[in-house]
Amino acid sequence: MFSEFLQFLFTGITIGATYALVALGFTIIYNASHVINFAQGEFLMIGGMATVSFMGMGIPMFFAIILAVLLACLVGVALQRLAIAPAKNADVVTLIIITIGASIFIRGIAQVVWGKDYHVVPPFTGNEPIRLGGAVLNSQSLWVIGIGAVLVVALIVFFTRTLIGRAILGTSMNKLAAQLVGIKTQMVLMLAFGLSALLGSVAGVTVAPITFTSYDIGILLALKGFVAAAMGGLGSGLGAVVGGLLLGIVESMTAGYISSEYKDAVAFSMILLVLFFMPRGLFGGRTVERV
Amino acid sequence: MTKKSLLRRAGVVAASLTASVLMSAQAAEPIKIGSFLSVTGPASFLGDPELKTLEMYVEKINEEGGVLGRQLELIHYDDVGNASNARNFAGRLIRSDQVDIIVGGSTTGATMAAAPLVQQAGMPFISLAGAVTIVSPVQEWVFKTPQSDRMAAERILWDMERRGFDKIGLISGTGGFGASGRKQTLEVAGEYGIEVVADETYGPSDSDMTAQLTNISNADGVDAVLNFGFGQGPAIVTKNYAALDIDLPFYQSHGVASDAFLDLAGDAAEGLRLPASPLLVPAALPDDDPQKAVVQGYKEAYEERWDSRVSTFGGYAYDGLMLAVQAIEAAGSTDKAAVRDELEDISGYVGVTGIYNMAPDDHNGLAPESFRILEVKDGDWMLVD
C-alpha cells in the first residue's frame, strides 16, 4: 500500500519537475514585458534537438549542451530583434500573437533541418533508477529538480539583487518611466529574450532524457508548463516550481487511485479552482509587493 | 488456383498483349494514376514515404515500358492531413484530371471523406490507411492495402493464447491509433479466451506512465501486458516498464514497429514482442519465404534512391500501386468497372505488406498471418513467427 503511494508520489514528482522547469522559462519574458512567449517551447526544443545533433557530430555531451544553449540564446535574441522589436509600439496581445507566429516558423525550420523523428538524449548520470521503499525514482528526475532549484534561486537573486534584473522589472512596470531614468528598454527586452532562451534550452536538455525530443516537443511541453506557470502565478519563479510539482502530483495520484482517463480532467479542474479563488495564482501576490 | 481461373488468366494475358500492341501503335495516352496524400502536416510520416514510393515506382515502370504499352502519369495532391482537403482533391482527380484509378489517402479520415465521391463516380480507389471501417462494411469501389488494427490485435492475442496467457493488462494512448486499438483489443480478446483485467490510458503529451503501470502490475493474476500506442508514448512506457522491473511478458502494437523505436527505448525494449511487417526483418526471413525477394528489393531500391530508412507506410503505397498495375494489366484496359472487377479478383499477389487474396467480401485481402511476430533481442528484431 505504502510503496504504491510512494510510487505515485515519485511519478508525480518526475512529471511535475518537468512541468516546473518548463514553467520557469515563461517567467523572465513575462517579467520584462508581460508578454507570454509562446515560442518558449521552441527554445526547449532547440535545447534538446541541437544537443542531439551536436552529439551526432561527435562532440562530447557537455560541450554539445553548451553549444545547444548558445544556439538557443542566439535564436532568442534574433527573435526579439527581428520579430518583436520592429513592432515596438504594439500592445501585449499583438506581441503574444507574434510569438505564436514565430513558434510556428521555428518549428518549421527545425522540421526541415532535423527531420520529424523522435530522438533520445542520454541521461546525465546512468540509466539505473533509484530504489526507495519499494518504489523507483528516475535518476534524471533528481537532475530536473536540482537544476530547477538552482534556477529558482538564481532568478530570485537576479531580479532582486542585480541592476539588470531590476532594470527588467522596471521596464515591465512602466516602460516610459524606465526610459526616462536611462534604461535602454529595447536592450533590456533583447536581454530578456536571450536569458529566457537560455533557461528554456537548459530545461529542454534536462527533461529530454525523460520525455525524448523531436521538432514538435515544444508544443506538448510548453502547454503544461504554461498551465503550471499560470497556476503558480506568472512571473514568480517559486510559483512556477510549486505549480509544476502540484500539477504533476495531482495528475499521477488521479491516474493511480481514480483512473488514468480522468487525470487531465482533475488537474484542469484544480487549476480552475485555484484561479477562481486566487486569480493571480498561488504566488502571484509577490509581483505586486515588489513595487 | 483453379483450372478455370488459369484459363481465364491466360485469355486475359493474351488480350492484354493484343491490346498493348494496338495501343503502342497509336502512341497511346498515359494511364493517369491519381493520388492525394498527407505529404506535409501532422501525418507527414505517412504521406512522405508513400509519395516517394509512388514517384519512384512510376518512374521505374515507365522506364521498363509502362503498362499495356502506355506510360504512367502520377497526379498527386497534398491534403496536409486534412479530411476536407482530401475530399476536394478526390473530387478534382475524378472530375478535372479524369484519372483512371486513385491510389492514396494516408489517413483513415482522408479515406473516409473521399469514399462517397469515388463510390458515386465509380472510380477504383486503393486506400493506404489503417482502420477497419474502410473495408467493413465493404464498399464497391474502395480497397485498401494495410492490415487493420483489428488484425494486429488478433495477431497479438493469438500469440498470447499460444503462450498460455489468459489475463492481460492493457495500456493505450488516447490518440486515434491507441483508442481504436484499445477498442479492437477489448472486442476480440474474448475470442482468444483472454480477459483484460486492467485497462489504463495515457495522453499524447504524458512524460511518465509509471502510475498506470504500477496499477497494471498490481492487478490480480495478470500474465502479460499490452501497449497500444503511437509516437514517443510507447517508448516512454517501455522505459518505465523496465525501470519498474515488471517481470511479465510485454507486447507492443505495430504502431511502433520501426528501427526508430529501438533507438528510443534502448535496452528497455529487450524481450518485448510485437506484430510487424516483414519489411523490418528482411534478412531474418527464411529463403523460401515468398515475400523475401519482394521485401528486400523494395527496401534496397528505396534506401538507395532516397538515402533514408524504408518505412512500413511506404510499403503500403508500393502494394497499392502494384495492385493497381496488376488489375489494369489483367483488365487489358483502363475501363473502370473492369479494373475494379480485376482488383476484387486478385489472389496470391505477393506484396511488401503481405500476400493479398481479395474477394467480394474482403477488399483488404490480407490475413492476420501477414503480421510477423517479432521479439527484440540484443537490440535488434528477431523473427519469432
In short:
Chain A has 291 residues and is an all-alpha fold. Chain A is 76% helix and 2% strand. Chain A has twelve helices and two strands; from the N terminus they run H-H-H-H-E-E-H-H-H-H-H-H-H-H.
Structure description:
The complex is a heterodimer of chains A (291) and B (385). In chain A, a hairpin with a 2-residue loop joins strand 1 and strand 2 (135-137). Chain A contains twelve helices and two strands. Chain A has a two-stranded antiparallel ribbon. Chain A is globular and about 60 Å long. By secondary structure, chain A is an all-alpha fold. The relative contact order of chain A is 0.21. In chain A, helix 1 (2-33) packs antiparallel against helix 10 (237-258) and helix 3 crosses helix 8. In chain B, 44% of the residues lie in helices and 18% in strands. Chain B contains twelve helices and 14 strands. Chain B has two domains: 3-148 and 291-368, Response regulator (Rossmann fold, 3-Layer(aba) Sandwich); 150-282 and 371-383, Rossmann fold (3-Layer(aba) Sandwich). Residues 22-26 of chain B have low confidence and may be disordered. In chain B, strands 2-1-3-4-5 form a five-stranded parallel sheet, with helices on both faces. A four-stranded parallel sheet of chain B has the order 7-6-8-9. In chain B, helix 3 runs parallel beside helix 4, helix 8 (233-243) packs across helix 9 and helix 11 packs across helix 12 (336-345). Chain B has helices spanning 3-25, 44-63, 83-95, 108-121, 149-162, 176-188, 210-218, 233-243, 259-265, 291-306, 312-331, 336-345, and strands at 31-37, 72-78, 101-104, 125-127, 142-144, 167-173, 195-202, 224-228, 250-252, 273-276, 347-350, 355-357, 372-377, 380-383. The radius of gyration of chain B is 22 Å and the shape is elongated. The longest helix of chain B is centred in the N-terminal third of the chain and has 23 residues, at 3-25. The two termini of chain B are 26 Å apart. The interface between A and B is medium-sized, with 35 and 29 residues. Chain B: Residues 30-379 form the Leucine-binding protein domain. Chain B: Keywords: Amino-acid transport, Signal, Transport. Chain B: Belongs to the leucine-binding protein family. Chain B: Residues 1-27 form the signal peptide. Chain B: This is ABC transporter substrate-binding protein.
